[in-house]
Design brief:
- It comes from Kineococcus mangrovi.
- The chain is mainly beta.
- It has a single domain, classed as 3 Solenoid (Pectate Lyase C-like), CATH 2.160.20.
- Helix content is about 5%, strand content about 45%.
- The strands form 3 sheets. Strands 1, 2, 4, 5, 7, 9, 11, 14, 17, 20, 23, 26, 27 and 30 form a 14-stranded parallel beta sheet that branches.
- The longest helix has 9 residues.
- The chain is globular.
Length: about 300
């Protein structure tokens, strides 16, 4: 499979097609610029084999698929199985790279990708621009083996969309946040999260806007269904310097998010400094109130009991 990817890249780009079946890999699969890797639906399974941990990705982690440095890349219509239920994968470097790792890429499409048995984040977009994650499914089934099993995690990236995904980190006890937009030293901006169905895991929230030393700005969270999570949508301050700026949660009647049976507040933006943040036209049912601080406008949200 890696050889086919290299040949397609050397020829100026192309499509590597995989038929239905299970493909065991003992090393990370690295996409190259101009190459699309397309399966035949969820029945095309790329699975980490018993010796998978003996080799590492470009940054010393254990991604099953990585786009490191590749542009104009597609990964579509397949299942990525990290074998975290079978491997002893709580190892150094576990959180350096991720199950499906879209990293340092431009023009990146992840479409109809199913992930299972993760031992790190399921789908991550890191330091990338002009990306789309749509129609994907994530799940967690392990208990007591791992921590920080986020669903779709966007870190230091820009000009992208996360649309129409089914994110379920609550199947086992190890799951963490469902959706994340995150800054550390680089800003994350101009990202839309829309039409997703999201359950966060026991260790996290349905969604987190996580801020480090850089600002998280121009983010839209619209028409998502957040359910059965320990918390709804929250902000988190992980190091000093950053803030939330120009963030819209809902925005109008057509784009309001639904929060159903979540613990704590439906939206809690009290932890991070905010500027020009609007939380409006959202609905909370058995999910608590909408909380903000100076710089957050709360309006036209509805709160109901069970």
């Amino acid at each position: 499979m890696q050889a086919a990817i290299e040949v397609a890249h050397a020829g100026g780009g192309g499509v590597v097609r995989l038929s239905r079946g299970t493909y065991l890999t003992e090393a990370p699969i690295r996409l190259r610029s101009g190459v699309a890797l397309r399966g035949d639906g969820s029945g095309t399974v790329l699975k980490a084999g018993p010796d998978f941990l003996s080799r590492t990705g470009p940054h010393g982690g254990h991604p099953l698929l990585t786009t490191e440095g590749a542009d104009d890349v597609t990964i579509a219509a397949l299942t990525a199985d990290h074998s975290g239920d079978a491997l002893d994968a709580d190892v150094p470097g576990r959180l350096v790279e991720y199950l499906v790792d879209g990293r340092h890429s431009e023009n990146l499409l992840l479409e109809e990708v199913t992930t299972c048995n993760p031992f790190t984040y399921s789908i991550a977009i890191v330091g990338s621009s002009r990306f789309s994650v749509r129609g994907c499914r994530t799940s967690v089934s392990t208990s007591g083996r791992y921590t920080q099993l986020d669903g779709i995690h966007v870190l230091g990236s820009r000009y992208g969309e996360v649309i129409g995904n089914d994110v379920d980190q609550g199947g086992g006890d190890d799951g963490d946040d469902g959706l994340v937009a995150h800054t550390i030293t680089q800003p994350c901006h101009d990202v839309v999260f829309r039409d997703n169905r999201v359950r966060g895991g026991r260790h996290g929230s349905a969604m987190q806007l996580a801020v480090g030393g850089a600002t998280l700005h121009d983010v839209v969270v619209r028409n998502n269904f957040f359910y059965d999570s320990p918390r709804g949508l929250r902000s988190g301050q992980w190091s000093a310097g950053g803030m939330l700026r120009r963030v819209i949660v809902g925005g109008d009647a057509a784009g309001g998010n639904a929060f159903w049976n979540n613990g704590g507040a439906a939206v809690d933006f009290a932890e991070v400094p905010t500027e020009d943040v609007v939380v409006s036209h959202n609905t909370s049912v058995a999910s608590g109130e909408f909380l903000g601080r100076t710089g957050t406008l709360l309006r036209a949200n509805s709160v109901a009991g069970v």
